[in-house]
Specification:
Length: 218
């Protein structure tokens, strides 16, 4: 039996027998192992010959690696099956936006198109903007990265950037700097339209009329 192994036999297996206070007695038998990863001493109160022993730090790291590997595997399986990992919060946000727009007419075709990129919209006004733009027939790239800046919507054929600004958006100075960087990167002939998020949400139809009028001039 493994509990009958002598100290010399345990040492040959890399286990040191010792004593330790605890377990309701002044001292009890303990065993010192080496952590399988870092080699630091690990105290156990039983003999394990078929179990890999880790210190607490390496055990935590191992659990994190296993969890990360599982997430990556799940993501890869989803991609192979042609599925998207659903962000329930953003999905519900898009559903709310679609329901708002439906009150103003038949937007079902645009809603279906916009839904394929629902996870790119950070707010209900952004989702409404996407539906309106697609309904009007514009080619739209959502969340385009330009010069390290993430732009809400880029309309390449119209050479236009559309930003949906929330109430806590950049101050005027920061916005001016941001716009300068965008134009410097894309070209001086590009237009940048800033839309107040509250206005888009409250009056999608007014926004639609305004955006069509402005973009049709280009």
């Amino acid at each position: 039996m493994i509990n009958k192994l002598t100290s010399e036999e345990l040492l040959s297996l890399g286990i040191k027998k010792t004593t330790s206070p605890g377990r309701g007695r002044e001292s009890t038998t303990a065993y010192i192992y080496k952590c399988h990863t870092c080699g630091n001493p690990v105290k156990m109160f039983s003999i394990f010959l078929d179990k890999v022993v880790y210190c607490n730090l390496c055990k935590t790291d191992a659990k994190k690696r296993i969890a990360m590997a599982k997430r990556n595997a799940d993501r890869q399986i989803a991609e192979l099956n042609g599925l998207n990992i659903v962000d329930e919060k953003k999905k519900q946000r898009f559903i709310n936006a679609a329901n708002i727009v439906r009150k103003y007419g038949d937007y079902e075709s645009a809603i279906t198109k916009a839904e394929t990129s629902y996870d790119k919209y950070d707010s209900i006004p952004e989702a409404i903007t996407a539906i309106i733009l697609l309904n009007a027939g514009y080619s739209v790239i959502a969340q385009q990265n330009i010069a390290g800046l993430r732009l809400d919507f880029v309309l390449p054929k119209k050479k236009t950037v559309i930003e949906v600004d929330g109430a806590l958006y950049h101050n005027q100075d920061k916005q001016a700097i941001r716009d300068y960087i965008i134009k410097h990167k894309l070209g001086a002939d590009w237009d940048i339209i800033h839309l107040p998020a509250d206005d888009v949400k409250k009056s999608p139809k007014s926004f639609e009329k305004m955006i069509k009028k402005r973009l049709n001039l280009k």
